[in-house]
Amino acid sequence: MHIKYDSQSLAKIETPALVTYAFEHENRIEGALAELDAAIGGRLKTIADAGELTGKTLEMTMLHVHGASGPARVLVVGAGKADKFDTAILRRIAAAALRHLKARSVKSLVFALREGQLTAAAAQAVTEGLLLGAYDSDSYKSEKKAGAAFESAALAGFGAAQAEAEKGIARGRVIAEAQNFARELVNEPSNKLTPRILADRALAMAREAGLDVEILDEKRIAELKMGALLGVAQGSDEPPRVMVLTYTPANPRPGAPVLGLIGKAVTFDTGGISIKPAEGMEKMKYDMGGGGAMLGAMRAIAALKPAVKVICVVPSVENMPGHRAQKPGDVVIAMSGKTIEVINTDAEGRLILADAITYAKQLGCTHLVDAATLTGAIVVALANVNVGAFTNNQPLMDRLLASAKNAGEKIWPMPLDDEYSDFIKSNIADIQNIGSGKGGGAVTAAAFIREFVGDTPWVHLDIAGTAWLDEGKPWSAKGPTGVPVRTMVDLAMNFQ
Ligand code: BES
Ligand code: ZN
Ligand code: ZN
Q1: 346 lines ligand 1 (CB under 6 A)
Q2: What is the distance in A from the centroid of ligand 1 to the CA of 26?
Q3: Structural domains of the chain, ranges and CATH numbers in brackets
Q4: pLDDT, tens digit (0-9, with 9 covering 90-100), for 263-287
Q5: Residues 297-308: pLDDT tens digits?
Q6: SS (H, E, C) the chain
Q7: Is the pTM of this model over 0.85?
């Protein structure tokens, strides 16, 4: 989709659909909107006077205009209360407007920012909203939905802030395309995306983006003694891979921090010998959502060039039952040397993360963030609204939460007291891979990962509830969300 800046006055813009937004209790049609309204016979004012333009969040009011020139439609989206308005709401307005029009086979729009709101940040949010809203998981449909390809959009404001707008559009495009790249990976079924294929896709992306990249194969993984990861991988004929992508800034300072982004990429999670029930198992193709998001973030980081060095480590396996699969009660030795009793082979994500984190630290990462579709328990706790975040370092958590706010992704801090480590004591090994059945499943999973992090500042993001939408939202297709790509990019851009 082509997106540009348009400086014309609203009433003059020739477009199939002119989109703008109205706040709650905003019963005046003022400024440039009034100019536009005058050009369409005052119909907006008529609707507002009748109380039909309530401004409630994401309310859609669409008018067809029969003028000789100017827009063919005007779509006014409810923006909620004016004092709650921010770029997160703006992003959703843009996405919901595009989806509303796309469903009606409209292929082009102009999005008009309100008075004084055409900042670079607003232009970025609208651009992201439009590109994210345009995504649908229909890559395997022979016939695309009506209006599938949205062709173009323009941003119009009430002023001449062209440079700001263009800066925001360019940045928004990089970030949204990276997020959609992640969503496309997550949408792939597991027969089309094995660990080897994921590694090939990561390699191709890294080369195109100009990142350093190394793919560790099963031989190299064994040399590195990643016993926890190999235990999971051994049940599948598909060999494991570990992807390592590195972004190095132009003038790296010696002693500067190195941000490590680790993403769980289980291309399919059957549960292994502790096999999952059939119902809903097909969704376990999204168990590589953390890895997909971190790869997406690296794609944007390569283009936006933050000052900090970033290393991304994505461990990838297929978790299968079979005659070679690891069995409940098996003991594996992690790369760090810790021994792990595998009580439940379905708690495999933490096993592959353990070795990926040890490796990331060996590569020199001074700060770590991992993203993983790790537990059903986080779905119980936070549903599909918030990502659960766990940390051993409050300052890093605070930075990450600030980035989440900037990026419009909902992330909620969860506790991780020392007591939770008691839950993963094993009778015969250093630790066991599940809690002792006393609840707190998302927390004990985080406590398990903490064992491998040590003192390195770290945040763990459990995205099991948020990486996939079972039902679409006005602003998003159902299926993969690409969370937390935007937060990771913002964190890297604002690091140190
Ligand atoms: N991949 C799952 C977690 C998951 C659940 C992701 C639901 C998305 C939706 C993970 O590997 C898993 O199976 N976790 C188990 C852990 C348990 C055996 C301690 C779980 O949460 O049930
Ligand atoms: Zn599992
Ligand atoms: Zn899993």
Answers
A1: yes
A2: 46
A3: 2-137+149-176 (3.40.220.10), 193-493 (3.40.630.10)
A4: 999 999 999 999 999 999 999 999 9
A5: 999 999 999 999
A6: CEEEEECCCHHHCCCCCEEEEECCCCCCCCHHHHHHHHHCCCHHHHHHHCCCCCCCCCCEEEEECCCCCCCCEEEEEECCCHHHCCHHHHHHHHHHHHHHHHCCCCCEEEEECCCCCCCHHHHHHHHHHHHHHCCCCCCCCCCCCCCCCCCEEEEECCCCCHHHHHHHHHHHHHHHHHHHHHHHHHHCCCCCCCHHHHHHHHHHHHHHHCCEEEEECHHHHHHCCCHHHHHHHCCCCCCCEEEEEEECCCCCCCCCCEEEEEECEEEEECCCCCCCCCCCHHHHHHHHHHHHHHHHHHHHHHHHCCCCEEEEEEEEEEECCCCCCCCCCEEEECCCCCEEEECCCCCCHHHHHHHHHHHHHHCCCCEEEEEECCCHHHHHHHCCCCEEEEECCHHHHHHHHHHHHHHCCCEEECCCCHHHHHHHCCCCCCEECCCCCCCCHHHHHHHHHHHHHCCCCEEEEECCCCCEECCCECCECCEECCCCHHHHHHHHHCCC
A7: yes
